[in-house]
Design a protein that fits this description.
single chain; 406 residues; alpha+beta; 8-stranded mixed β-sheet; binds flavin-adenine dinucleotide
């Protein structure tokens, strides 16, 4: 009998396992993958995610893997180009973009080092229900044998198509369908220091430096264009790059593509109720959103901490478990909602509404407020502070004063 069984051992599951094991709980974490391995995902981690890696004692390993620290974002809307460094998360000014086979392996090892039992190549097939609550898992182990294990809580960290969420019929809310389709790959010989992001009406491209001197570049269209994109991936990809940024397209064509394209149009937006009798959800299993703003890993780290604290509060009796898990859902949603709404808006690939266009134009040439604006996506500038009328009024007035001087 375990205290917790965690299904899924990537950015949500392994940190949850590690944190619970570090608190002294008996933890089993299983994944049908073996590590190191990649998954369909680019891998930008914002400063608050990097701060958590640092707090957990794992940042040095990520940095030592050779992915460069990233401190600047260039957000090029066409008529307005905003470039700057988001405010730090505490003392962490850097973002990183480690390959998933690098990051996830560091996370799985950290869970094992903390004392969690890790079973790779283990595919969960059913949940075990006893007395109306989840009591364990049944699945196929790496050797092919069917295995049943019991725990006080089963945590689904099993991603977008979570078997745990489906088995317990976790209700979804705040749903939006998939809005984009995207392909990405990796190039050598492309000079790139920071993140470059080019949103345009109907398309966008985003690029960041990663391990091994490579640059990861993604290009997206509206989701109804997936069939056309898939039928000519390379040609469509280069056309998007050219339309969004001829300069980036030129640099990319001077470089060498080192890997196959990977892509998807399966990127729905939803929250799920993340707890119930004997179960909880963390990461994409409980809250999934479009990858446009690259929040999934950073959010998974935050929610792993929130969930591990809630489970601990319940197990130690500091709080009834249900109440602690309700607090987890509330804190997750409060932290996620503003960027969720902005992500859905950006992923619609429409022109920004007029008042946003006016704000973007006003930010142009204002280095300090541009950095704070970029911190909205990084998660280091609170939305409620930035969007108070007094702050927006100050930015608009400063722009008007600059224009009057010209
Ligand atoms: C195209 C694309 C680009 C993205 N780019 C970014 C980005 O730049 N930055 C960012 O932060 N996020 C990005 N994301 C989102 C990010 O990939 C996810 O938010 C993140 O992977 C969520 O982590 P997770 O641990 O919840 O789930 P996952 O990473 O999906 O891991 C789930 C794990 O559960 C295992 N599993 C599932 N079912 C079972 C089962 N029945 N039995 C055993 N194991 C099981 C799987 O094998 C898998 O290893 C992107 C996503 C996509 C699709």
């Amino acid at each position: 009998m375990y205290d917790a069984i965690i299904v899924g051992a990537r950015c949500a599951g392994s940190p949850t396992a590690m944190l619970l094991a570090r608190k002294g709980y008996r933890v089993l974490v299983v994944d049908r993958s073996t590590f190191p391995s990649d998954i369909l995902s680019t891998h930008f981690i914002h400063q608050p995610g990097v701060l958590r890696l640092k707090r957990w004692g794992l940042l040095d390993q990520v940095a030592a893997s050779g992915c460069p620290p990233i401190t600047t974002i260039t957000l090029d809307f066409g008529p307005v180009v905003l470039s700057g460094s988001p405010p730090p998360a505490e003392d962490v000014a850097e973002a990183y973009c480690p390959r998933r086979r690098v990051l996830d392996t560091i996370l799985v090892r950290a869970a094992a080092d903390a004392g969690a039992q890790v079973r790779e190549g283990f595919s969960v097939q059913d949940l075990v229900f006893e007395d109306g609550r989840v009591a364990g898992i049944r699945g196929r182990a790496a050797g092919g044998q069917t295995v049943t294990e019991h725990a006080r809580i089963v945590i689904g960290a099993d991603g977008l198509h979570s078997l745990v969420a489906r088995s317990v019929k976790a209700p979804a809310y705040n749903e939006h369908p998939s809005l984009i389709c995207a392909y990405y790959s990796y190039w050598s010989g492309v000079d790139m220091r920071g993140t470059e992001w080019y949103p345009r009406v109907g398309q966008q491209t985003i690029a960041f430096p990663t391990n091994d001197g490579l640059v990861c570049i993604a290009a997206a269209l509206r989701s109804d264009k997936f069939h056309a994109f898939r039928s000519d991936i390379e040609g469509t990809f280069l056309r998007i790059l050219n339309a969004c940024s001829p300069g980036l397209a030129e640099r990319v064509q001077a470089g060498t593509r080192e890997e196959r394209f990977a892509g998807t149009a399966d990127v729905p937006n939803f929250f799920r109720t993340p707890y119930g009798p004997g179960w909880a959800l963390v990461g994409d299993a409980g809250y999934h959103k479009d990858p446009t703003t690259g929040e999934g890993i950073t959010d998974a780290f935050r929610d792993a901490e929130l969930l591990a604290d809630a489970v601990d509060a319940g197990f130690t009796g500091r709080q009834p478990l249900d109440e602690a898990l309700a607090g987890y859902e509330q804190r997750r949603n409060e932290a996620a909602m503003p960027i969720y709404e902005l992500t859905v808006q950006l992923a619609s690939l429409q022109a920004p509404p007029p008042e946003q266009q006016a704000l973007l134009a006003a930010l142009s040439g204002n280095k300090e407020d541009t950095s704070r604006f970029l911190g909205l996506v990084a998660g280091t500038t609170p939305f409620q502070e930035f969007f108070v009328p007094a702050n927006i009024g100050r930015i608009m007035a400063a722009a008007a004063a600059r224009a009057a001087l010209v």
